[in-house]
Write a sequence for this structure.
């Protein structure tokens, strides 16, 4: 398997998901990612026992999915960066790294002396990467943010999916939703910066903000608003289909599940759909017997499609529609996504062995090289690799013991 980041060392001083997810992707691609965690507290995400109403881990198990996802494949070093005795160790790690990756806010970076100038004074060739809520410039550069605020709310997604007049705002469909997209974005930026350094000799400062990723995700409507010079008019779609196409949109099955149709050429697929649904005569109906008529009478056709879909259960429609060429998808829950045949055929649900020796699975990052699935390894236990990494740096046993006595390392 090609591991294009083999030989690249990433020093990560970050917590939660947004920036650590980038480190996980780079580790999947072969990088040696060293995660610095506070010597006493560790990554704050380790303390989240319930997330969105769900237990974050099984009782008696070391497998902690909200840590495993954004931290698999890394080595963890427990280091109290605020202690003077930890500084020489940090500086040696910086000297031996290609990338410095952080989501600490400007005030914390200044206090710990890990800002661009501090790190570049130690290693002028290092690529410095900041993940933030609202960007590195402007009045909100020092403001913290999560994906629910900076990505979902500020970036336009929440308004885009909340129906007019709703009594509650639509929430993100999954925890760390924007964080995961942001981490993938950061990983791509780092790859470009490494290429640039290899070809020009110049290291980059890379910035990715959650609000920027959010705006990128909603760019279609944002660009239209910029074109029109104001908020877009509220566009309430028909209950079924679209204004000119009955074969677009979500339809409910008899057992309360959903099927999403996206057949953008109604004239091409109408006859096929009618035949699959057992209503072949509808393709010759004078209301729908040409593309122009079908589009003009889309509302009537959509009601017929809705009745047809509602007459049979989800599993039956999955089998029926699988026989055709038109584009559609089953609307799947989280468990079904994990069992999705396309994901599994492409190795995008990947196996790994946890710290207890138990076989587990995680969603792999969506990028593959040479048609080969990523080979995942588990996330580190807290400070699991402190001794290993510091001894690699050339510290002696006595120095390591002294750091631990001082509380600078774990």
């Amino acid at each position: 398997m090609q591991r294009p980041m083999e030989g690249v060392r990433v020093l990560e001083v970050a917590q939660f998901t947004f920036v650590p997810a980038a480190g996980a992707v780079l580790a999947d691609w072969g990088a040696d990612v060293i995660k610095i965690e506070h010597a006493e507290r560790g990554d704050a995400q380790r303390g989240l026992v319930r997330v969105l109403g769900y237990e974050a881990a099984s009782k008696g198990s070391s497998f902690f999915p909200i840590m495993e996802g954004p931290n698999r494949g890394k080595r963890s070093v427990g280091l109290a960066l605020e202690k003077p005795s930890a500084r020489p160790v940090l500086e040696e790690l910086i000297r031996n790294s290609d990338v410095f990756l952080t989501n600490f806010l400007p005030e914390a970076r200044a206090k710990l002396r890990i800002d661009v100038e501090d790190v570049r004074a130690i290693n002028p060739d290092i690529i410095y990467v900041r993940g933030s809520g609202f960007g590195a410039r402007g009045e909100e550069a020092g403001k913290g943010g999560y994906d629910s605020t900076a990505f979902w709310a500020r970036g336009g997604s929440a308004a885009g999916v909340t129906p007019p007049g709703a009594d509650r705002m639509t929430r993100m469909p999954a925890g760390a939703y924007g964080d995961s997209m942001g981490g993938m974005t950061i990983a791509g930026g780092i790859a470009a910066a490494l290429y640039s350094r290899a070809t020009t000799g110049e290291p980059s400062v890379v910035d990715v903000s959650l609000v920027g990723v959010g705006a990128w995700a909603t760019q279609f409507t944002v660009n239209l608003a910029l074109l029109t010079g104001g908020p877009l008019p509220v566009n309430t779609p028909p209950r079924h289909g679209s204004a000119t196409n009955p074969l677009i949109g979500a339809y409910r099955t008899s057992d309360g599940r959903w099927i999403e149709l996206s057949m953008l050429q109604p004239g091409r697929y109408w006859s096929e759909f009618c035949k699959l649904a057992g209503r072949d005569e509808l393709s010759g109906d004078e209301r729908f017997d040409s593309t122009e008529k079908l589009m003009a009478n889309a509302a009537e056709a959509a009601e017929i499609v809705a009745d047809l879909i509602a007459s049979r259960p989800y599993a039956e429609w999955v089998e029926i529609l699988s026989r055709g060429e038109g584009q559609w998808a089953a609307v799947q829950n989280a468990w079904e996504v994990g069992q999705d045949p396309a994901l599994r055929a492409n190795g995008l649900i990947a196996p790994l062995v946890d710290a207890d020796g138990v076989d587990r699975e995680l969603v792999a990052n969506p990028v593959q090289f040479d048609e080969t699935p990523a080979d995942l390894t588990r996330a580190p236990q807290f400070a699991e690799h402190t001794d290993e990494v510091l001894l690699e740096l050339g510290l002696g046993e006595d120095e390591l013991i002294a750091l631990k006595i001082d509380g600078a390392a774990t």
